[in-house]
Design goal:
Elements lengths: L4 H8 L5 H25 L4 H4 L2 H26 L3 H6 L13 E3 L10 E3 L1
Antiparallel strand pairs: 1-2
Helix pairs in contact: 2-4
């Protein structure tokens, strides 16, 4: 087999791919959130205690941590490989005169996306 090792590794262990990890973290987050809300709805606490920030504080920290982890893995997945950058045609990244260009990172891995205004 003449395929690169990274392709073979990703086929052997799909659970190690960034997209699966992001999906798994989102899936866990949804169920933690669902059961957290369900437990408070079924409890005898008042609605004011249900809405208090102190109640949701640990969950908000977990949510922030999972979003940061997922964004880090997504950024690594969309980073171009060395081989792909050598073979792909180069696109001029200079904006037109008098225009400002902002690079955009998309989830599809498009490296040359930008917004010009």
């Amino acid at each position: 087999d003449l395929r690169p090792d990274s392709v073979l590794l990703s086929q052997r262990a799909p659970f190690a791919s960034p997209s699966f990890l992001g999906f798994f973290l989102s899936f866990l987050l949804f169920f933690f959130h669902f059961f957290h809300l369900l437990s408070f709805l079924l409890s005898f606490f008042s609605f004011k205690a249900f809405l208090s920030l102190r109640t949701f504080h640990p969950f908000l920290l977990l949510l922030l941590l999972l979003v940061l982890l997922e964004s880090c893995f997504s950024f690594q997945a969309t980073r171009p490989s060395k081989e792909a950058s050598e073979t792909s045609p180069t696109v001029s990244e200079k904006p037109a005169a008098g225009r400002t260009s902002i690079p955009v990172l998309t989830s599809f891995g498009a490296r040359n996306s930008s917004i010009s205004f």
